[in-house]
């Protein structure tokens, strides 16, 4: 799909419902990648490398592209924050192994 066709599709979708009035290609890509990251996390059998390969393929990026790293930042930030909070809770409860 060409760049102009992609933007035309997003425009048509945006106009199809008042709920989608704020939709942009940028938001769509970031939301899709965020949801993809959450789905991958549910399947613990997929390595980071395989995740990047699958993401790149589904997004139409060239094999080996590092673009997937950009779109995974929000998810990694949230996982990091969640892990840090869990460690703090364990520490305050006296459950933290030394």
Give me the secondary-structure category. mainly alpha
Give a short account of the largest sheet: none
Tell me the radius of gyration.
18 Å
Q: Write down the domain tally.
A: 1
Helicity, as a percent range: over 70%
Write the layout of secondary structure elements.
Elements: H1 3-15, H2 25-42, H3 48-59, H4 67-93
Helix pairs in contact: 2-4
Could you walk me through the main structural features you see in this protein, from its secondary elements to its overall organization?
The chain is mainly α. The protein has one domain. It contains 4 helices and no strands. It is elongated and about 55 Å long.
Tags for this model:
98 residues, mainly alpha, Site-specific integrase, 4 helices
How would you briefly describe this protein structure?
The protein is mainly alpha-helical and 98 residues long. It contains four helices and no strands. Helices cover 71% and strands 0% of the residues.
């Amino acid at each position: 799909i060409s760049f102009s066709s992609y933007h035309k599709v997003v425009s048509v979708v945006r106009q199809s419902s008042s709920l989608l009035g704020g939709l942009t290609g940028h938001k769509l890509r970031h939301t899709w990648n965020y949801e993809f990251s959450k789905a991958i996390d549910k399947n613990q059998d997929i390595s980071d490398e395989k995740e990047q390969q699958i993401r790149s393929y589904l997004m139409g990026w060239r094999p080996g592209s590092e673009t997937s790293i950009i779109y995974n930042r929000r998810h990694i930030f949230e996982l990091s924050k969640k892990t840090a909070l869990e460690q703090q809770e364990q520490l305050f409860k006296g459950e933290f192994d030394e």
